[in-house]
Amino acid sequence: MFEDFESDTIFTAEQVLENRGRVAIFIDGSNLFYAALQLGIEIDYTKLLFRLTGGSRLLRAFFYTGVDRTNEKQQGFLLWMRRNGYRVIAKDLVQLPDGSKKANLDVEIAVDLMALVGSYDTAVIVSGDGDLAYAADAVSYRGARVEVVSLRSMTSDSLINVADRYIDLDQIKEDIQKSPKSHLNYSPFPALGTVLDDNRPR
């Protein structure tokens, strides 16, 4: 009875995407950074925004990240992000007793997901963090559609299970990576790498 369950498609991908309405994007910067490292690519954030919006009406794109205020390269990258379609939510890194640095922004993402319910029709969560599953489930019960975008090996099953749609970054990496010939005037990965090294998902 259940043998062919997973192969049965009720809607095509095009039908699923055609009614996304107003889209709000919530990007966990640290999670995306390490996913890109695993894939061996550098993210082109203009392409990423275009791909995640997918022709729908963009309400707002949030980018959440821990910051080192003394890192000029990172500050330059975040300024570029602010001027190119992203609302940056930054939080100072805190040094832990073991010497590592961390800035957890799960609460900020969850609060913004809930606070904007009613303003968006589709929430695109770019993170694999299972701590966001409860908030994602809550907004879905308020009538919002939830899409999760992350690398499968770094994504919690609990988050995938509450999503209306899951997209593996590995499947869209060609659409969102920088081209070798790109001469854009920002270089996010070297700048973020020094800051986020101690903030990798564990």
UniProtKB/TrEMBL annotation:
Looking at the record, the residues that make up the NYN domain are 22-170
What InterPro entries does this protein map onto? LabA (IPR047140), NYN (IPR021139)
Membrane-crossing ranges are none
Q: What domain of life is recorded for the organism?
A: Bacteria
Q: Tell me a Gene Ontology molecular-function term this record carries.
A: RNA nuclease activity
Q: What is this protein called?
A: NYN domain-containing protein
